Amino acid sequence: ELKEDYFKAIEFYKKSLDANIANNNEKGILICYNDLGNVYRKIGEYAIALDYYKKTLDVNEKLGDKSYISTSYIYLGEVYRDLGDYSQSLSHLKKGLMYAKQVNSKRLLMLAYEELSLTFEKINNIDEALSNYKKYSTYKDSVLDEEKSNQIIEMQARYETNKKEQENELL
After folding, report:
1. Measured between alpha carbons, how far is 163 from 160 in angstroms, rounded to an integer?
2. What distance in Å separates the CA atoms of residue 142 and residue 154, rounded to the nearest whole number?
3. Which candidate, 108, 104, 77, places its Cα nearest to that of 93?
4. Calpha distance 125→86 (Å, rounded)
């Protein structure tokens, strides 16, 4: 049943991709390529996922968005690890990390370090795996702290808005 849902998702993403290509919508094309890569990876079709992630990277490089370029390299690194090509995995993950540092994205840094840790673990380089895991953990804590702070600020703003609305209703 779940696999059937993935095949339906592929069908819809391909229809969306066709529409985006027809409309020359690069952002839409990019999103479809990435999502198709994600779905194919989830069903274990790594070669197809790799193809879509490479297309995603090409579009991201054309658009010049370093955050998305970082994400593309990280996803490629994950798939190469899935395929057992650890050299390519490390190469792509390190490029993803480099772009994540350039844009100073804690979320991307967290993801890159986590994936590097997992890949180093696969090749039994425990020292590098541990080093990258510690960096991942630091960024994870930082990202979670930021998310909690943002949630508190959002709740506070909602409370203040509701309070003012109630005061206005009383007038």
Report:
1. 5
2. 18
3. 77
4. 12
Confidence (pLDDT) at 146: 72
> CA angle, corner 118, sides to 35 and 51, nearest 5?
30
Counting every residue, how long is the chain?
Answer: 171
Residue bearing tokens 């979670």 = 144
Question: Residue 102: pLDDT above 80?
Answer: yes
Q: Which residue has the tokens 């990258």?
A: 132
pTM of the predicted structure, to 2 decimals:
0.81
Let me know: does 41 contact 83? Beta carbons within 8 Å.
Answer: no
Q: Find all residues with CB under 8 Å of 86, minimum gap 6, and list them.
A: 80, 119, 122, 123
Question: In the numeric block, which tokens belong to residue 169?
Answer: 């209703």
Q: How does pLDDT run across 130-149, given as a tens digit for each residue?
A: 999 999 999 987 777 677 76
